[in-house]
């Protein structure tokens, strides 16, 4: 007989919704999701910038148990993905168990389990906490002198104003990660002039997008095996496997193949040799997360798009002054400058056994055993926690595999094998030392800056290949855990 445990899931984005759906499917009735925002969707609710799309193919960026024949194309726009999550929330009656506008400020472990406190001052007791608070969630504002003096609209890409109309405007975009590249591509031809401020050039992988026709969507509806065929397309599966092998072993033949392909694409795509040199990265391909775009190089060669590579000196009321003394006149300034990716569940104050603070445990770097659990924080599980992002794949797939693993830990508690479960210090220490050694050898650690690196410069990613991740998530090794009655 299963115990009816009390679950708190923090966050109603992709991962928190997954946890809630799975928990209820597994027969748990006491599941509450606490969400600080007004709606489900997490990163897709927060990011609404022009040109936003997911660079993981749509049918792969979909829950395995809820295929979506309606995707409009191979790559889905952000608004469509948000709609998918809203539809899922309805279909699985999640809105009944989600408390919106409810920000968790602390989780404290005690004799009776966990006490969760909200910003409004409510407390909720729980046996198990699932932290599904996302990774790219806290916008990073650039430290550029006089940023606040700009007189026109100025905003971070993740704080897109509903009312902004960029048609016919002179727009500056600072930052050329996936966000800046998508934005500039969409702005070209809409804005009067786009200035793209690039601090470091990027490697770009041409990933063509194409719409699905009504006929194709009808076929997906009638025959779900066709969707499975897209998800399991051998070319895509192989590409993903080759890519993770390349990332994990930067001296591999797969890496050499990827580098040669990207260098060829780059050299063939930019006609003007001077522009080509300004766009040529000085670090190895895939060291920063690859940008997927089949159109950016064409866009930057348009007369109404300027790549600005001179360092920014400061922002002025009318634009941006670069160190070469040029004043770039702008009416709108967009900061596509990324996120504080090292926060994870913080700033929520998490205190485990004996009052130990997660902030103290993570003082050097956020870490968790297999990216999921932490000694002295029993029955506390992270989805997409530190060390979790695997290559450039679908984080939905990552979270689903993590859930397979977490569900088995929870089952130890619900079936009465123990009251609390947490990994041992020994298991975590051994895992971390293996992980760090491997991470330093990945392409991410080959000498560039990126949001993958922790404060000590070590990639905080899964450092092995995809097959190793899939294997690790099939079943926990209970010898690595303390089971407390
Ligand atoms: P990223 O990938 O972290 O990119 C941030 C960009 O902003 C990057 O080009 C940075 O240049 C640039 N940046 C940051 N601070 C500054 C300052 N002060 N001056 C100039 N340029 C700056 O964030 P994104 O939002 O594009 O993408 C995040 C992820 O979302 C992406 O990888 C996908 O997983 C989805 P740098 O390279 O550091 O020189």
How would you summarize what this structure contains?
The chain is of the alpha/beta class. The chain has helices spanning 14-25, 43-46, 78-91, 178-187, 214-222, 224-231, 234-248, 253-269, 273-279, 296-299, 358-361, 395-414, 425-441, 466-472; strands spanning 7-10, 31-34, 98-99, 104-110, 113-118, 123-126, 128-131, 154-156, 170-174, 193-197, 204-205, 291-292, 305-308, 312-316, 319-322, 327-329, 332-335, 349-351, 380-382, 420-423, 481-484.
Essential attributes:
17% strand, 5-stranded parallel beta sheet, 2 domains, FAD/NAD(P)-binding domain, 485 residues, single chain, alpha/beta, binds ligand NA7
**Secondary structure tally, helices:** 14
What name is given to the CATH topology of the largest domain? FAD/NAD(P)-binding domain
Strand order of the largest sheet: 3-2-1-7-19
CATH superfamily label of the largest domain: FAD/NAD(P)-binding domain
Q: In percent terms, what proportion of residues is strand?
A: 15-25%
Mean pLDDT: 96
Structural class: alpha/beta
Are there runs of 5+ residues with pLDDT below 50, and where?
Answer: none
The CATH class assignment of the largest domain is Alpha Beta
Terminal CA distance reads 17 Å
**What spatial form do the alpha-carbon principal axes imply?**
globular
CATH architecture of the largest domain: 3-Layer(bba) Sandwich
Bound molecules: ligand NA7
């Amino acid at each position: 007989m299963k115990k009816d445990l009390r679950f708190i899931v923090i966050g109603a984005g992709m991962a928190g919704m997954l946890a809630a759906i799975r928990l209820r499917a597994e027969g748990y009735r006491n599941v509450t999701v606490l969400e600080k925002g007004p709606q489900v969707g997490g990163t897709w609710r927060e990011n609404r910038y022009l040109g936003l799309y997911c660079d993981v193919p749509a049918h792969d960026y979909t829950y395995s148990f809820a295929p979506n024949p309606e995707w409009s194309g191979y790559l889905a726009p952000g608004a469509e993905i948000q709609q998918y999550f809203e539809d899922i929330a309805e279909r699985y009656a999640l809105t009944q168990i989600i408390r919106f506008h409810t920000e968790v400020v602390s989780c404290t472990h005690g004799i009776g389990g966990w006490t969760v406190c909200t910003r409004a001052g409510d407390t909720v007791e729980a046996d198990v906490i699932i932290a599904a608070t996302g990774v790219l969630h806290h916008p990073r504002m650039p430290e550029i002198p006089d940023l606040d003096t700009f007189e026109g609209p100025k905003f971070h890409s993740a704080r897109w104003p509903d009312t902004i109309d960029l048609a016919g405007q002179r727009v500056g975009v600072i930052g050329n990660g996936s966000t800046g590249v998508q934005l500039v591509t969409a702005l070209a031809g809409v804005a009067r002039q786009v200035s793209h401020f690039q601090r470091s050039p990027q490697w770009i992988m041409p990933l063509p997008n194409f719409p699905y026709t009504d006929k194709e969507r009808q076929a997906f509806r009638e025959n779900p095996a066709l969707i499975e065929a897209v998800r399991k397309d051998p070319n895509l599966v192989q590409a993903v496997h080759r890519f993770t092998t390349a990332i994990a072993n930067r001296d591999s033949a797969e890496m050499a193949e990827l580098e040669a392909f990207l260098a060829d694409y780059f050299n063939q795509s930019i006609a003007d040799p001077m522009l080509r040199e300004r766009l040529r990265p000085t670090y190895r391909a895939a060291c920063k997360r690859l940008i997927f775009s089949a159109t950016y190089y064409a866009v930057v060669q348009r007369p109404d798009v300027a790549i600005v590579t001179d360092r920014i000196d400061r922002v002025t009321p009318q634009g941006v002054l670069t160190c070469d003394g040029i004043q770039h006149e702008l009416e709108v300034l967009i900061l596509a400058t990324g996120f504080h990716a090292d926060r994870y569940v913080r700033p929520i104050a998490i205190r485990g056994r004996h009052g130990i603070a997660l902030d103290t445990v993570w003082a050097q770097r956020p870490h968790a055993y297999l990216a999921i659990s932490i000694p002295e924080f029993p029955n506390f599980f992270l989805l997409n926690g530190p060390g979790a992002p695997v290559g450039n794949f679908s984080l939905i797939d990552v979270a689903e595999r993590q859930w397979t693993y977490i569900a088995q830990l929870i089952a130890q508690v619900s079936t009465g094998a123990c009251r609390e479960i947490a990994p041992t210090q020994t298991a975590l220490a051994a895992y971390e030392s293996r992980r760090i050694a491997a991470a330093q050898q990945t392409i991410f650690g080959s000498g560039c800056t990126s949001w993958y690196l922790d404060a000590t410069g070590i990639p905080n990613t899964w450092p092995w290949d995809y097959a190793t991740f899939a294997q690790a998530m099939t079943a926990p090794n209970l010898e690595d855990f303390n089971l407390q009655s």
